[in-house]
Design a protein that fits this description.
This protein has 328 residues and is α+β, with helices and mostly antiparallel strands. It has nine helices and 17 strands. It starts with a strand and ends with a helix. About 2% of the residues have low confidence.
């Protein structure tokens, strides 16, 4: 949000704003009462909390608007309405174990024009997603009950939510690689600025579209190997979602597999593909969506995987035959 206010004649950047409070990029003692000017309009505000560690970058303070003039209320409402009108609608689920941070993020995203469902643990995030499919999920790595990494796996293995991008937040820089390995669409290090959060959310959320199923069928009628071969020949991209009691997903870019996972275990993508290739029942559908990870270095040609699986089956059969001959 491009908004600045004045405190004692000094211009200060507003990090997020609502009708009842703001987060300012300024360092002030908690409890201070100050006069704040928005153009010609003025209001008295009280500093209610400071954040410089895990809640904001740069350091700043949250202020409650206590005695606004009528002119200030009008000016502030105009700013909020303008911000909302500039953003396309979208729905975001926010999950953070600290209720204050979840509330602050929710206020910033609501001001930016999104509808928001806030949660303080992983089960609440899943519940919010099941009630209304979001355009994006924003979660802290250290969420209680179900942490951010396990949440990524649960969402990826839900056919209705597999295409929803997830942004992971953490105050541990070393978590970035693990977040992307588990399928995160983006990673934000704490401390952060809500301006940064809103920008990243808007970029990812507004790029998503309602689920578009390109191809669907039953694995009894069409084997998975045949489906994958077709996708390779036609250089298709998307997420292939498979269900047979368990749920699995395979991300494909230009006819090559770039990632995979399933609800049965936390396994390497190649192991997941080999396991689901043996499924002879269940359903499949290819959803047209950008993969969460598309590193060319890990792209696996489908033909090579099918040949390797056939070789492993032949070796296993030969070992079985040898064992039988040895017992006779």
């Amino acid at each position: 949000m491009d908004l600045r206010v004045e405190i004692a004649g000094r211009e200060v950047v507003v990090d997020d704003v609502s009708a009842t409070g703001m987060f300012l990029a300024a360092v002030l003692p908690v409890g201070d009462e100050i006069e704040l000017a928005l153009g010609e309009a003025k209001a008295r505000v009280r500093v209610v909390h400071r954040a410089g560690g895990a809640a904001a970058r740069p350091a700043g303070v949250g202020v409650a608007i206590e005695r606004p003039t009528a002119a200030f209320v009008t000016a502030l409402d105009r700013v909020i309405q303008r911000a909302r009108s500039q953003a396309s609608s979208g729905h975001v689920v926010v999950g953070d174990g600290e209720a204050r941070i979840a509330e602050r993020l929710s206020n910033a995203l609501a001001t930016a024009g999104f509808t928001v469902a806030a949660a303080t643990n992983g089960m609440e995030v899943l519940g919010a997603c099941s009630r209304r499919t979001p355009n994006l999920v924003l979660v802290d790595r250290a969420l209680p009950t179900i942490d951010g990494h396990r949440l990524l796996q649960r969402l990826a293995c839900d056919a209705a939510l597999a295409a929803v991008p997830v942004i992971v937040m953490s105050d541990e820089p070393g978590e970035v690689a693990r977040a992307f390995d588990h399928g995160a669409a983006d990673f934000v290090a704490k401390p952060f600025s809500t301006l940064e959060i809103v920008s990243r959310v808007r970029r990812l959320a507004l790029a998503t579209h309602p689920e578009q199923v390109v191809l669907a069928g039953n694995l009894r009628e069409v084997g998975l190997a045949a489906v994958l071969t077709l996708l390779e020949l036609e250089r298709k991209s998307g997420r292939l979602v498979l269900k047979n009691g368990h749920t699995a997903w395979i991300d494909i870019v230009d006819g090559k597999i770039v990632d995979a996972g399933w609800s049965a275990a936390d396994s390497h993508a190649r192991s997941v593909v080999f396991s689901v290739l043996d499924w002879d029942r269940g359903t499949f559908k290819l959803v047209a969506t950008a993969p969460r990870r598309s590193d060319p270095a890990i792209a696996m040609p489908i033909t090579h995987l099918l040949l390797e699986q056939a070789r492993q089956r032949d070796e296993s059969s030969e070992r079985a035959r040898s064992a039988c001959r040895g017992t006779t």
